[in-house]
């Protein structure tokens, strides 16, 4: 396994290009089994999870090509689709369960291993299954696999008990080829859900209301592959916003999905970060003294849970005190003890973390527990005095494209090494 070695204390300066969105690319790629002609994807990030997705598509029988240099991928339909997504792949990437809806819609059957991924709390798939059952699917649990069958999906009115991004995505994809109209109420509104819907519309789907709590899908008989650019990654962009702020730097972000970052912009500006939209991109530069704030994670358009750990790192070196309340996942404070190893002052009680800023952090060996925790430790290491070693960065590689290379381009002293 690899680790990152960071010599902190330098302000970051320069321009960084934001890659395509991992959380948008995964469902859009996994929609490929729905299509009856080749599809070209652009702005595809070169990430571990993306490569896992291509492996899964190949196992399902599709032909895939990916050129990381041009961020372009092409996927061609299968002569015969395989309905099984094996455990060896699904256990490493939770999003693999998103092939369930497309396989049921196209084949009438699917056998998908129960998902794995980051250990940040329970993310049950029962919401997906209950909704698909209303459309005519039947499920059994067989040796750790979800085995689903249907004689044909039919449109239905579905009210989600709670907002679910994956459930909304799975149901939108399944409904595209179902008979009749499907109505999803209490649907997720995330920009990545909207990007998936826009992709499917470009394929010939009939979808309205995406980006609102009520989404309507009128089933069609077939979908054709377009040439489609995936949106920029709002979480990567938010992470580099914090990287600039935590080091007192001056960074220009290119390919930044500004319209998807309102909640992040608002909270960072409240903390004293200066953010300006310019013709060349998004500029983040020093303002006055940074101050802690209170943050509550919420479904979009609220503050994203995927930015909680990064903002916590920033609060560690801001003045005053603030509270971070995590409402999405019950086990997403595993980075706290590692930040404390760097000198942070944080106390956790139930689903809240109380942060009091310190004058400076000090480098130390730390270990990443999940994807966004990895990013928070890298950010803290960039601000810390001395050397920080971040172990188990395979988590980082799941969601950040060449992070150490991008940081080096901004003047950071960071390198990758073997543990």
Automatic annotation (TrEMBL):
Q: Where in the cell is it found?
A: Cytoplasm
Gene3D superfamilies reported for this sequence: Enolpyruvate transferase domain
One GO cellular component term of this record is: cytoplasm
Q: Quote the InterPro entries the UniProt record gives.
A: Enolpyruvate_Tfrase_dom (IPR001986), Enolpyruvate_Tfrase_sf (IPR036968), MurA_subfamily (IPR050068), RNA3'P_cycl/enolpyr_Trfase_a/b (IPR013792), UDP_GlcNAc_COvinyl_MurA (IPR005750)
Modification 2-(S-cysteinyl)pyruvic acid O-phosphothioketal occurs at? 118
Q: Where does it primarily localize?
A: cytoplasm
Catalysed conversion reaction = phosphoenolpyruvate + UDP-N-acetyl-alpha-D-glucosamine = UDP-N-acetyl-3-O-(1-carboxyvinyl)-alpha-D-glucosamine + phosphate
Among the GO molecular function terms of this UniProt record, one is:
UDP-N-acetylglucosamine 1-carboxyvinyltransferase activity
Tell me the protein's name. Answer: UDP-N-acetylglucosamine 1-carboxyvinyltransferase
């Amino acid at each position: 396994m690899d680790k990152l070695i960071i010599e902190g204390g330098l302000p970051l300066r320069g321009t960084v290009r934001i890659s395509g969105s991992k959380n948008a690319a995964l469902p859009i790629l996994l929609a490929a089994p729905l299509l009856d002609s080749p599809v070209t994807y652009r702005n595809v990030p070169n990430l571990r999870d993306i490569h896992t997705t291509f492996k899964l598509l190949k196992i399902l029988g599709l032909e895939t090509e990916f050129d990381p240099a041009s961020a372009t991928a092409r996927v061609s339909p299968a002569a015969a689709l395989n309905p099984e997504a094996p455990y060896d792949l699904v256990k490493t990437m939770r999003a693999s369960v998103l092939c369930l809806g497309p396989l049921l819609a196209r084949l009438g059957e699917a056998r998908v291993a129960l998902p794995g991924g980051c250990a940040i709390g329970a993310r049950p798939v029962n919401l997906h299954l209950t909704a698909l059952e209303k459309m005519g699917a039947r499920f059994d649990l067989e040796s750790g696999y979800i085995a689903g069958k249907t004689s044909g999906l039919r449109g239905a009115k579905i009210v989600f008990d709670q907002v679910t991004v994956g459930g909304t995505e799975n149901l939108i994809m399944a409904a595209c080829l179902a008979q009749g109209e499907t109505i999803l109420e209490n649907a997720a509104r995330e920009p990545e859900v909207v990007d998936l819907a826009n992709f499917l519309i470009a394929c010939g789907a009939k979808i309205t209301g995406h980006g609102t709590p009520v989404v309507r899908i009128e089933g069609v008989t077939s979908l054709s592959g377009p040439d489609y650019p995936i949106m920029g990654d709002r979480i990567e962009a938010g992470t580099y916003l914090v990287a600039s702020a935590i080091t007192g730097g001056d960074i220009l972000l290119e390919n930044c999905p500004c319209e998807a970052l309102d909640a992040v912009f608002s909270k960072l500006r409240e903390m004293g970060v200066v953010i300006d939209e310019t013709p060349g991109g998004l500029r983040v530069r020093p303002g006055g003294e940074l101050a802690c704030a209170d943050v509550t994670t919420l479904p979009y358009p609220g503050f994203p849970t995927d930015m909680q750990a990064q903002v916590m790192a920033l609060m560690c070196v801001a003045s005053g005190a603030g509270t971070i309340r995590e409402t999405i996942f019950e086990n997403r404070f595993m980075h706290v003890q590692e930040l404390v190893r760097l000198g942070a002052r944080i106390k956790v009680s139930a689903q809240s973390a109380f942060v009091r800023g310190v004058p400076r952090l000090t480098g130390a060996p730390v270990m990443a527990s999940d994807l966004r925790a990895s990013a928070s430790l890298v950010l803290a290491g960039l601000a810390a005095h001395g050397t920080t070693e971040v172990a188990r960065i395979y988590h980082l590689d799941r969601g950040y494209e060449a992070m150490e290379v991008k940081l080096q381009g901004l003047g950071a002293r960071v390198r990758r090494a073997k543990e």
